[in-house]
Amino acid sequence: MLVGTLFLEALITGIIDQAELDWLASHQSDFSRLEETTALRLGRFLDQGVVQLGCRLPCSQVPLLSLVVFYAALPNIQEL
Predict the structure, then answer these.
(1) Number of structural domains in the chain
(2) The pTM is what?
């Protein structure tokens, strides 16, 4: 698993699961400076409620409207 991939997946879905969070915590001593910064930013998104701790549903169960709302909010995420 890569920190950048985890970061992007968490932003796209709005969710990070416990196993991913455990992986981040257990591997943080091996992170490069860029990966540390990315992990810190993900932590800030968790604190702000942009990303939630939970589990992901299969794509067929995600309503289309929630995806539209997420993509509409993307410009605001860059301002954080």
Answers:
(1) 1
(2) 0.67
Structural element, H or E, at residue 53: strand 52-53
Contact by Cβ (8 Å): 51, 11: yes
> Is residue 15 helix, strand or coil?
strand
- Residue 29 pLDDT: 93
**Could you give phi then psi for residue 25, rounded to 5 degrees?**
-65, -40
Task: Round the CA-based radius of gyration of the chain to a whole number and report it.
Answer: 13
β-pair partners for 15: 52
Which residues span the domain enclosing 35?
Answer: 3-78
For residue 79, is pLDDT > 60?
no
% helix / strand / coil in the chain, to the nearest 5? 70, 5, 20
Task: Assign 61 a pLDDT band (cuts: 50, 70, 90).
Answer: low
Percent pLDDT > 90 in the chain is 42
